[in-house]
């Protein structure tokens, strides 16, 4: 076998020149793909996307390759054509942000050099950089000296890590046994986690994955605005069977639907009195800590034992960029492992650092480079301006909905999300009409709205995470929703005759 050409791999001098060329061609193809459509989504829905002939008809893993350019150009074009346009003002469903250009460029550097933040010799500068960025984030939250963190692929994984640490650290303390060795079955009582009814789906799944059972999470009822307070947690605690050990309290700083922030100060006090680990899921809200307008609402977050923040939400990083911050670095101890091929003890004591003991991962992408680049390029002020603009847009949307007789708000806007529904003439058709109007807009490629349920009713959701949208765009979006609502109302009425 001959040696392959250097241009085949990204990291060398020649490879970088080849990469430069490929990037230019790919971006041109992306622009061509985006120009082939007009709305935030391709029109025609899933069937139309599955029918893209140029790239999808072929064998996905052919015997012979076609070469870089011939492979990538049509894929990039189709990928762009078939993507959800996050810069489009009618995209307002998920906490999926338009990516900052500087962060996307940094991600390319990360991929080209393929560093890993597990042991020092797999990514020396990446490891140093991650320490500094995490320090800055601990400071932003207000965690004390001695706090530490780790970057993870998402809020779901950050929450899972928090549950694992709480189980082992607080569970061991409460049961008087070393659970990090024997596991939760060694506990003197069944370990339970208290969280809000409005917690993200990843919380219950993390509790189950940590071996605490599908019903290991005990739900506290938030108020009508989605806010959980100490009284509701006390009621949840009172309902836990005697002998069980509640070892963790998970609060929200920005719930998934209403953007509610739980009463963090009183919850932290209650958790401390009970010996429970206090975790704050700020996957959504954490990016808003830079805003002086909103910062005060997060008071108490600095008392957390751990905090989840997603930078791929309200900080405009391309996925993945999440962090778990932990109040005491030593609390990562249950994750520590020593492998002779990775982190022998004498290397460690000779000063070669590693981060294996902070995650469940080994190879770990250097997502930190984009975070460092964004923080340097945009600064706190720049990010705060983006946050405040989205908050303004949400409040503007709220005022429009209040003024429309055919639209109903579920709750006042807290952060950047607006939950509402269309009110058809016949109230009994509301759920069907709302569900159908959202699908209609998706299939037509006209608007991307979120959907959820409050109580027993279906609601729709705008997430204002696109700072490029204007008030005029929102006017238009509201009109489009009302129009689709009317059309669906007519259709449902005809079908019911
Ligand atoms: C988005 C979100 C998560 C999950 O984060 P991923 O990055 O999607 O894994 C968890 N909790 C809350 C409150 C969220 O908004």
Task: Provide a brief overview of the structure.
This protein has 497 residues and is an alpha/beta fold. The chain has helices at 13-35, 45-50, 53-56, 68-81, 101-113, 124-141, 155-175, 179-182, 201-212, 230-238, 264-274, 345-349, 368-403, 430-443, 471-496, and strands at 91-92, 148-152, 191-196, 217-220, 245-252, 277-282, 306-310, 322-326, 407-409, 417-422, 448-454, 457-463.
How would you portray this structure in words?
By secondary structure, the protein is of the alpha/beta class. The protein has 3 domains: 13-83, no CATH class; 116-365, Type I PLP-dependent aspartate aminotransferase-like (Major domain) (Aspartate Aminotransferase, domain 2, 3-Layer(aba) Sandwich), CATH 3.40.640.10; 376-496, Aspartate Aminotransferase, domain 1 (Alpha-Beta Complex), CATH 3.90.1150.170. Helix content is 43%, strand content 13%. It has helices at 13-35, 45-50, 53-56, 68-81, 101-113, 124-141, 155-175, 179-182, 201-212, 230-238, 264-274, 345-349, 368-403, 430-443, 471-496; strands at 91-92, 148-152, 191-196, 217-220, 245-252, 277-282, 306-310, 322-326, 407-409, 417-422, 448-454, 457-463. The strands form 2 sheets. It has a 7-stranded mixed beta sheet with strand order 2-8-7-6-5-3-4, sandwiched between helices. A 5-stranded mixed beta sheet has the order 1-11-12-10-9. Strand 9 (407-409) and strand 10 (417-422) form a beta hairpin. Helix 6 (124-141) packs parallel to helix 13 and helix 13 (368-403) crosses helix 15 (471-496). The longest helix has 36 residues, at 368-403. The relative contact order is 0.13. The mean pLDDT is 96. Residues 95, 154-156, 159, 200, 202, 252, 256, 281, 283-284, 310, 322 line the site of pyridoxal-5'-phosphate (PLP).
């Amino acid at each position: 076998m001959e040696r392959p050409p250097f241009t085949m791999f990204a990291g060398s001098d020649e490879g970088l020149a080849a990469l430069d060329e490929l990037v230019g061609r790919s971006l041109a193809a992306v622009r061509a793909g985006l120009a082939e459509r007009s709305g935030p989504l391709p029109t025609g829905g899933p069937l139309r996307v599955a029918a893209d002939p140029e790239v999808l008809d072929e064998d996905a893993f052919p015997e012979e390759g076609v070469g870089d350019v011939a492979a990538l150009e049509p894929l990039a074009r189709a990928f762009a054509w078939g993507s959800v346009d996050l810069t489009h003002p009618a995209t307002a469903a998920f906490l999926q942000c338009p990516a900052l250009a500087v962060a996307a460029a940094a991600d390319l550097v990360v991929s080209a050099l393929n560093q890993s933040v597990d042991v020092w010799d797999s990514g020396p500068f990446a490891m140093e950089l991650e320490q500094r960025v995490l320090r800055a984030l601990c400071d932003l939250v207000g965690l004390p000296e001695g706090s530490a963190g780790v970057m993870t692929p998402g809020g779901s994984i950050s929450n899972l890590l928090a549950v694992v640490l709480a189980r082992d650290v607080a569970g061991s303390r409460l049961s008087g046994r070393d659970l990090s060795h024997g596991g939760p079955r060694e506990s003197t009582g069944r370990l339970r986690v208290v969280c809000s009814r409005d917690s993200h789906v990843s919380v219950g799944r993390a509790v189950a994955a940590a071996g605490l059972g599908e019903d290991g999470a005990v739900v506290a009822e938030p108020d009508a605005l989605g806010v959980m307070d100490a009284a509701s947690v006390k009621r949840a605690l009172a309902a836990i069977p005697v002998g069980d050990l509640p070892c963790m309290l998970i609060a929200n700083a920005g719930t998934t639907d209403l953007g509610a922030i739980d009463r963090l100060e009183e919850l932290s006090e209650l958790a401390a009195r009970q010996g429970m680990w206090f975790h704050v899921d700020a996957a959504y809200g954490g990016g808003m800590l830079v805003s002086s307008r909103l910062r005060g609402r997060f008071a108490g977050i600095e008392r957390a034992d751990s905090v989840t923040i997603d930078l791929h939400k309200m900080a405009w990083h391309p996925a993945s960029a999440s962090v778990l911050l932990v109040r005491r670095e030593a609390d990562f101890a249950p994750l520590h492992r020593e492998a002779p091929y990775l982190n022998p003890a004498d290397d460690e004591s000779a000063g070669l650092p590693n981060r294996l003991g902070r995650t469940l991962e080994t190879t770990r992408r250097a997502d930190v480079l984009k975070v460092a680049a964004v923080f340097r390029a945009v600064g706190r002020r720049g990010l705060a301006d983006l946050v405040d603009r989205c908050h303004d847009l949400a409040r503007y949307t709220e005022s429009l909905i209040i003024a429309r007789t055919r639209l109903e708000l579920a709750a006042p806007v807290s952060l950047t999300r607006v939950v509402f529904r269309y009110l058809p003439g016949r109230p009994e058709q509301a759920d069907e009409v709302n569900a159908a109007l959202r699908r209609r807009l998706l299939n037509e490629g006209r608007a991307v709205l979120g959907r959820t349920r409050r109580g027993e009713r279906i609601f729709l959701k705008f997430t204002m995470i696109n700072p490029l949208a204007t008030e005029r765009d929102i006017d238009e979006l509201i009109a489009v929703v009302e129009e689709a609502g009317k059309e669906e109302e007519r259709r449902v009425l005809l079908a019911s005759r």
